[in-house]
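Figure 6 in text form: structure in, sequence out.
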């Protein structure tokens, strides 16, 4: 799904208004109606009290439409217009007048019975139009909302959240009902406390505009994943499904390479060879009989040489950073032409030898976690700068950068893809090793590097989303990601069949 900036969203509005021959007020009515219908379905109990907090811009206008529709549908509605939220917009004013005509008064300070489970706070103070720091009065309203113990639903965006810079204070939403497009700011690490869940409401913006307008930001949702997924051909055999080579491991860290190798095989490739130091030989052969094993070095890898011809290579998991290993890795990378995923210690070795980055074959995939990312490209001031640096780094070195996080970012070909799957169950040792294995396995199956990275990250998160429902987040382990890969593939198959 495309992600547009606030100014592009305004353009989408204008195009829709002109092509569909409607007014801005009619578009607002449509947006408010979608919110109303969603609320009515989710909260059918007419004893539910909706307390709506409105600013005076168009986000507040949406809030007023929703308030009126709920009121006319016999819900109990309380409306507060928050001062210090700018000059009233035309459509806000029009809807404010309609509210009066419908006998719904605002700012009545009316005490209502506090029944925790029946009160919903609707946050419509600011939307995508926030253009300066929040002033005292709006801040007070935001704090009041946040200090309540009730369910908070934001219209379009959590009020106070900037779309293009760091936000200090914003509503902590349980649910954001956002219009037509998701927003980039929703996925940034610094905003993680402001949103629990996102629901995108279709408000019928112009389809041609959405299809044709370029953007550099995408959400890897179901549709994007399905487009990249490649089923196993009926006449496949192990030779056509690709051979993955996983290089890593050192004394005490053979598990990392075992996990990676298993994940590569379970992602669907035909053959897997693990290249490890000798101390891991029995471990890998026993724990993972499907793998072939090659060795170099005793307790750590000191040379990388083999006479097989893998279709893809994953390197770095549990590798260690002994001087001999560092030398072996650099020598190895110098001569590589095979599609490759570079992770963990191989990334650290590269970050001490930055000039080597330019020697990597084009579209090599790098999979740093936040600390490794910082070692590679330096630190950042905030998430927006981080995003720009990631994009510039991938472009400069002609690589694919998989910046792992709660919402992992894949930067390639000057585009940024934000993943939508995964959960905190993945915050467990070894889950990154599994990801590298999956992406290497997909590369071996002839996925393009961009598709392998984007789809691999999605698949990894999906396996975790399915898995934690059965294991809990606490008890979920990296091995469970591998165990649930099959369920993730089956889910994708089933979804595709439904369409
Ligand atoms: N396609 C769609 O998505 C559709 C979107 N729609 C809705 O429109 C929303 C965008 O509306 P918007 O442009 O009026 O801006 P909004 O978010 O209400 O806030 C800006 C207002 O607050 C003010 N203001 C700003 N910063 C401030 C501050 N720090 N402190 C105080 N005031 C501040 C600013 O006033 P000013 O700068 O003029 O003083 C302005 O009046 C969008 O999120 C969605 O809900 C639907 O109705 C239709 C379809
Ligand atoms: N809270 C979270 N939500 C979603 N994904 C997460 C979360 N925490 C971690 N992950 C994912 O788990 C993986 C962790 O990778 P990494 O830190 O390299 O682990 P390890 O080094 O232990 O293998 C990444 O793919 C990351 O995106
Ligand atoms: K809002």
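Output sequence:
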């Amino acid at each position: 799904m495309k992600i547009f900036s606030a100014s592009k969203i305004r353009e989408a509005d204008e195009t829709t208004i002109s092509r569909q021959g409607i007014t801005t007020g009619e578009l607002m009515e449509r947006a408010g109606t979608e919110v109303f219908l969603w609320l009515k379905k989710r909260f059918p109990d007419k004893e539910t009290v909706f307390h709506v907090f409105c600013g005076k811009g168009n986000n507040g206008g949406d809030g007023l439409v929703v308030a009126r529709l709920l009121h006319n549908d016999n819900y109990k509605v309380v409306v507060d217009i928050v001062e210090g939220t700018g000059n009233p917009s035309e459509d806000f004013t029009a809807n404010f007048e309609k509210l009066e005509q419908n006998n719904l008064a605002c700012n009545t300070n009316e005490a209502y019975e506090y029944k925790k489970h029946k009160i919903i706070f609707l946050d419509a103070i600011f939307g995508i139009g926030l253009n300066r720091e929040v002033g005292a009065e709006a801040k007070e309203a935001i704090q009041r909302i946040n200090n309540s113990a009730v369910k908070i639903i934001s219209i379009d965006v959590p009020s106070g959240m900037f779309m293009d810079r760091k936000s200090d204070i914003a509503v902590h939403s349980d649910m954001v009902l956002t219009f037509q497009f998701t927003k980039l700011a929703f996925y940034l690490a610094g905003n993680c406390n402001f949103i629990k869940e996102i629901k995108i409401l279709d408000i019928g913006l112009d389809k041609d505009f959405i299809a044709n307008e370029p953007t550099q930001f995408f959400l890897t949702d179901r549709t994007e994943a399905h487009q990249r997924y490649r089923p196993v051909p009926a006449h496949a055999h192990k030779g056509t499904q690709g051979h993955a080579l996983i290089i890593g491991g050192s004394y005490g860290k053979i598990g990392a390479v075992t996990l990676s190798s298993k994940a590569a095989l379970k992602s669907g490739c035909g053959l897997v060879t693990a290249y490890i130091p000798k101390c891991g030989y029995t471990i890998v052969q026993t724990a993972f009989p499907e793998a072939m094993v090659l060795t170099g070095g005793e307790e750590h890898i000191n040379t990388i040489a083999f006479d097989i011809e893998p279709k893809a290579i994953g390197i770095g998991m549990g590798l260690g950073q002994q001087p001999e290993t560092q030398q072996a890795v650099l020598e190895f990378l110098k001569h590589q032409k095979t599609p490759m995923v570079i992770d963990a210690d191989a990334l650290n070795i590269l970050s001490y030898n930055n000039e080597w980055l330019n020697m990597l074959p084009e579209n090599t995939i790098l999979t740093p976690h936040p600390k490794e990312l910082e070692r590679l490209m330096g630190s950042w001031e905030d998430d927006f700068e981080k995003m720009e640096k990631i994009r510039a780094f991938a472009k400069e070195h002609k690589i694919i950068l998989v910046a792992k996080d709660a919402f992992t970012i894949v930067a390639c070909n000057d585009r940024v893809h934000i993943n939508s799957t995964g959960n905190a169950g993945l915050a467990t040792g070894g889950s990154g090793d599994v990801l590298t294995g999956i992406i290497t396995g997909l590369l071996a199956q002839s996925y393009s590097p961009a598709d392998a990275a984007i789809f691999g990250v999605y698949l990894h998160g999906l396996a975790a989303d399915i898995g934690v429902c059965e294991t809990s987040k606490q008890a979920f382990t990296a091995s469970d990601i591998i165990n649930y890969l099959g369920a993730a593939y089956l889910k994708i198959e089933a979804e595709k069949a439904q369409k």
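Caption detail: The radius of gyration is 26 Å.
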